[in-house]
């Protein structure tokens, strides 16, 4: 923690890509305390980011009283059909806009919430932000350490599940619509409201596949609200079949068949 604080002090100013998740929320609170008005959290809002997460980021910034701005952007044309290299193209576009926006506000240092665990994954988006000179002050901390430090600071973000943009729920190579994004968000919000937070709703244009940790599956099926949840999902006209993925929760299944 002291090493992290020392690094932030040395920056003099910092603009953070702030999603409102565990990592960026922790970093925002630490940097905001150290740098004051020389710190700003920038939340990018696009059609493929969950409104729930945007609201979460806004509320967190208000509670913890650090500078916060929303940068609203449209879907980049180069990712309109959700290509295999979407994450790289998307991050490059979004961070170019974020950096331009931050520089106009007088900031010269830009950061994201990448942690040590992220380095062991295939993260083309990380390559994109590195090319733009974005730094990752949390790179020497694991997710577990960040959660523990967050609990020490009594941050309500400490135990949030990890989320990714809504495009990770849709197949590569298929042009997506606003209705596809709304459908996925609607289903995930329904499940979260019923107590099942660590989930994904995958939609391939016809079938919906619900993905959750195996330990939650029996609880989900036995839930007193199970029939009502399935009924509400079944009322969505675009969905033909509702499936429960017995392989359990995985971070990336877009390349799998079905």
Summarize the structure in words:
The protein is of the alpha/beta class. It has two domains: 151 residues, 3-Layer(aba) Sandwich (Rossmann fold); 68 residues, Alpha-Beta Plaits (2-Layer Sandwich). Helix content is 42%, strand content 11%. A four-stranded parallel β-sheet has the order 3-2-1-4, with helices on both faces. It has a three-stranded mixed β-sheet with strand order 5-6-7. The relative contact order is 0.13.
Summarize the topology.
Layout: H1 2-11, E1 14-17, H2 22-35, E2 39-45, H3 51-64, E3 68-72, H4 86-104, E4 110-111, H5 124-131, H6 143-152, H7 178-193, E5 200-203, E6 208-211, H8 214-222, H9 226-234, E7 242-244
Parallel strand pairs: 1-2, 1-4, 2-3, 6-7
Antiparallel strand pairs: 5-6
Helix pairs in contact: 4-5
